[in-house]
Design a protein that fits this description.
Helices cover 83% and strands 0% of the residues. It has 113 residues and is an all-alpha fold. The protein has a single domain (2-109), classed as YjbJ (Protein Yjbj, Chain: A, Orthogonal Bundle). Helix 3 packs across helix 4.
């Protein structure tokens, strides 16, 4: 009987080694995925901060060019540059085409999309 266990032992050991390698590989994959997720989250936070700083600069330039726009108007514009023409048209009583042209030129000039 001891001969049988000695014969099975190499198979058991090799299975254990194989299983340990599988577990290690799975753990490494999960770790890499976790690190990638952390990196993306950190990058997103950095982009959000950069966008926030960029928005403050744009907001100042919008106020400079169209002083009649209120802080509430500017708050509504944050993150949606397409609404700028509507706000200009509303506050200045411009034709839709004129307001859209001015907004388009402003967005192009200041790289605001």
């Amino acid at each position: 009987m001891s001969d049988e266990t000695n014969e099975l032992e190499p198979e058991v050991l090799s299975y254990r080694a194989f299983r340990n390698r599988q577990l290690l590989h799975a753990w490494q994959q999960r770790r890499r995925a976790h690190q990638a997720r952390q990196y993306r989250e950190q990058e997103h936070i950095m982009n959000k901060d950069q966008m926030s700083g960029g928005w403050h600069q744009i907001k100042g330039k919008v106020k400079q060019q169209w002083g009649k726009l209120t802080d509430d108007d500017l708050q509504q514009l944050e993150g949606n540059s397409e609404q700028l023409a509507g706000k200009i048209q509303q506050r200045y009583g411009l034709a839709k085409e004129d307001a859209e042209r001015q907004a388009r030129e402003f967005r192009t000039r200041h790289n605001w999309t």
